[in-house]
Design brief:
Length: 345
Amino acid sequence: MIIVMKNKADEKAVEKVLEWIEAAGYKAHVSKGVERTIIGAIGDERGKVFLKAVETWPGVEKVMPILQPYKLASRETKQGDTVITVGDVEIGGPKCVVIAGPCAVESSEQLMEAASVVKKGGASMLRGGAFKPRTSPYSFQGLGEEGLKILAKAREKTGLPVVTEVMRASDIELIEGYADVLQVGARNVQNFALLKAVGQAKKPVLLKRGMMTTLEELLMSAEYILASGNANVILCERGIRTFETAMRNTLDISAVPVLKDKTHLPVIVDPSHAIGKWKFVLPLAKAAVAVGADGLMIEVHPDPQHALSDGPQSLKPERFYDLMREIESIAKIVRKGYAEAHGAH
């Protein structure tokens, strides 16, 4: 249920409603807008009649059901967009954020060189996998904690916040000690035990869409994280599996505006995993920015031909610099519209 408070409702009226919600066995989530406060009451259906009683209370404008199955992720529950702050970086704000780096941390030399390229190109965050889920058990699986230590050193050297993947709940505490954002990969998007676990983590979560996951299923996965207590969730479109074989996956570019309509959570796009070929990453990145993505995740490697993971889709340094230059003009136009709509300067 959603309780919409009147424009001039005072704090006492809001507190009284919050107490009533808790008495009904619901969790209250408060969203304070410029003009009015909206309170989301999250729980099962048994307390609906009990909650409905507040409709006649002083300060309450109306009580409405939350129609979507994803309660906390829905725009019905929260006014405006969620902006997630990671160090000095704002994801979901007026700037289009670029997260870049190699698929996997292979060595200190490789990552430091990649981090330098990412920094020079103007990206905001560094990505790199220390634990790698691979289709084949014989493929490179990552360096584990040693890879995390290398990522932390790269952050210290460049000042770039670090994004890395978590595959098991038992690794969360370890990874949190090194990383700034925890990534849940496409293969784990419906690993509900893992989602609940990262929902209890202190770091933001970057949640990738699965290869066969609908947008509603993606939002329900985000709901697991939100319902477990972590409000900082970033959604990532990375391509879905279709009948087409010309590319690795099919980038669902329409997912960006549709998700932005359905949820207040920030939405980024990973064109590298979608297409699987470096030569097509740039046009897809430009398309993602043009339709309003809050950011991009780009794979960059100093020597893609000898990469231990995803070399064919990784950009060489000069190609990455080209990408950053070309998306800048598009981002300025699109994000200017965002800033005007949200009153930013």
